[in-house]
Amino acid sequence: MNTAKFIVFEGGEGSGKSTHIRLTAEYLKQKNISCLVTHEPGGTEIGKKIRSLIVDKQPEKLGATAELLLFLADRAHHVESFIQPQLESGMVVLCDRFSGSTLAYQIGARELPQAEFILQMEAYARHQLTPDHVIYLDVDPEVGIGRKNTQKGHEMNRLDSESLEFHRKVRAYFQKLAAEQPTWKQFDANRSMEEVQEDISKYIDTIL
User: Fold this and answer.
1) Residue 1's pLDDT is what?
2) Which CA distances in Å does 142 have to 23, 106, 160?
């Protein structure tokens, strides 16, 4: 049985999280390390319903406070019903977005008041679970949104379509977290997918 590890991939829109989490899972399997991939929001059946409320372009505008609470509801269920049980069984869990995204989007970009209270609620929602490692893919928002716009079959969702200034605030808060948190490792995601993944794979070798 593998030693349980909770590894989170964070980054702005178009940073390549989904691609790199998939490639990392393949890399681990080549090394005979079993892992599971999940994502937020929407990593469970209930989460999928919550995700549609958050990212779909609804005729009724979703307020910033309601958006935050939906993210936290998704996380609470995700941790309790999926992530924690898998970790307890000794599994390596790779998650596309977690706490860092909530802080970067809701505190950093939405600039919601009472940041300390939000931090307390977020910790409560995740049942105090903390990632062992966070792989942060840092991308210039112009580059990231440009990738999203040209991605075949991708329809820009509500968060993708926020202003460039919004995405710059998201990036600034992510960079703040990466500088302050010892469990975070930053990668330059403005480069080619191959270059970034090579560095991620080398890093994975040092932590597993």
Assistant:
1) 46
2) 24, 20, 12
